[in-house]
Amino acid sequence: MKIAKVESFLLSCPLPQPLKLTFWNGERTILKRDAMILRVTSDTGLKGYAPGPAHEHAAHEIRDHIGPFLIGRDPLGWKEFAFKGDLELTKTYHAVEIAVMDLVARHQGKPLSELAGGRVRDTLKLYGSGGMYQPPEKYAQEAADVQAMGFPAYKYRPALGPDEDLRTVQLMREKCGPDFGIMIDAHSWWRMGDKSYSFDTVAALAKKIAAYGPVWLEEPLPPEDHAAYRKLKALQILPTATGEHEQDEAGFLDLIQTRAATYIQMDVCCQGGFAMGRRVCEALAKEGLKFAFHSWGTVLEVLSAAHFGVCFPESVVEWLEYPCHGNFGRKGMYPFPLADEILTEPLDIHQGILTVPKGPGLGVDVNEDVIAKYPWIPGPWSYFKINSPPETIAVTGDHSVKWVEAK
Question: Which of 95, 105, 248, 277 is least surrounded by Cβ atoms within 10 Å, i.e. has the fewest?
Fold first, then answer.
C-alpha cells in the first residue's frame, strides 16, 4: 500500500449576518467560521481523515511540501517518517500525520486510539464551551442552557470590566447551583489594549471569583509571560489554566516543570500532533498536573482529540472542550452548522459524557458533502477593534497564534 494523494479542503461557514460583540475596550466582529478537512488516500482507494489548521498558509504547506514528502510512501511505516521543516511547517505536518494514522487504523481495522497509544478507557468528560461577550444575565442564561443539555460544566469568555466580570460569575453560580462547573476563559483580559487587566487587577479579581468555586481561570495573563503565571499560582487563589498559545514543546515543558498552572491546555491537532501531546501528558503526570484540551472548532476536531484523550486516565486528561453552537434550534452561541454536519452521524454524548467509537480509524465517517456545500471564503473570520489605543486586528484560523495581522 502506498500513499497516492494528500489533500486539504478549506471550508467556510458564513454567519447569516456579521455578529458584533461589545467588550470593555472595543468590539469584536465575527463574519464566518472556517475549517479544514485533511484527506490522505492510498493507492487502494482507502482514505484517512483529520482536522487541519483552517488557513491558506497551511494549505500551501500541504500542497508544496507535505504532500510531495508523503506521496509514494507506505503509510504503515508512518512512525519512521523523518519530515524536516521549520516550526510552523512541522506543526502542519503533524496535523496531516493524524490523517495518515486514521488511514492506517482503518486498514488494520483498529480504532485510531490504538495508534495514539492504546486506550485505557472509553469515555471522556465534556464541558460546554460558549459565552462570547454578552451582558452578565445572558451569560448566566447560557450557562443554564448548557447545564440543561447535560454538560457538567460551562466555559465562557468575559470582558466586561472587573465589576461586571465578577457579577457574571455570581449570577451563573446562583442560577446553576453549587455543583455545576464554571470555567472562565479570560484570554480577553490581555486583548483589550490599554484596558487590559494588570497583574494586580487579575489577582484581586481572582480572589473574589474564587468564592464561587470555578474549575479554573484560563489565560488571565499574556500567555508568553510564564513568570507571571508562576507568580499568580504561588498566591494559591484558585486553579489556573494556560497552554493553547504555546508555540513549541519547550514552552509546554517550561510551564509544566515550573508548575506555572494547574491545567495545561493543548490543541493536539494543531499544536504538534499526538506524539508531542503524549510527551506533554507524560510530563504532566510526573508533576501531578492535569491536561485539558483546546478544541474550538468542529466535531471532527472533538472526535480526533477524544481518540487521544482516552489513552490516559482521568487523573491526567480530565476535560475535553465541546463548543456549543446554536445549530438546528439548539441553545448556544452563534450558529456554525458545518461543525455538526462534518460527520455522517452525531457523536455519542449522554449527560456530558462522550463515548469514543471503537470502529476502524475515527470510528465515524467524514461527510464529504460539506466540501461543496461550504466553499472557502478568503480572508479573516474575525476582527477585534480596540478603542484605545485605536487598532483593528484580523484573526485567521490558527488557534495557537496570538494575533495575525493589524490593519
Answer: 248
- 146 & 64 share domain: no
Strand-pair partners of 13? 33
The total domain count for the chain is 2
- Model pTM score: 0.96
118 Cβ neighbours under 8 A, 6+ residues apart: 311
The pLDDT tens digits of the residues spanning 234-290 come to 999 999 999 999 999 999 999 999 999 999 999 999 999 999 999 999 999 999 999
Q: How far is CA 16 from the centre of its chain?
A: 24
Residue 138 and residue 266 in one domain: yes
Other Cβ atoms closer than 10 A to 185? 23
In angstroms, how far is CA 261 from the centroid of its own chain?
18
Using CA atoms in the order 196, 200, 204, 207, what is the torsion angle rounded to 10 degrees? Answer: 100
Residue 232 identity = L
Look at residue 198 and give its three-state secondary structure: coil
Question: Quick check: 67 and 89 in contact, CB under 8 A?
Answer: no
Residue 238 DSSP SS3: coil
Residue type at 125 in one-letter notation: K
* Distance from C-alpha of 141 to C-alpha of 159, rounded to nearest angstrom: 17
What is the Cα–Cα distance from 95 to 269, expressed in whole angstroms?
5
Q: Is residue 364 part of a domain?
A: no
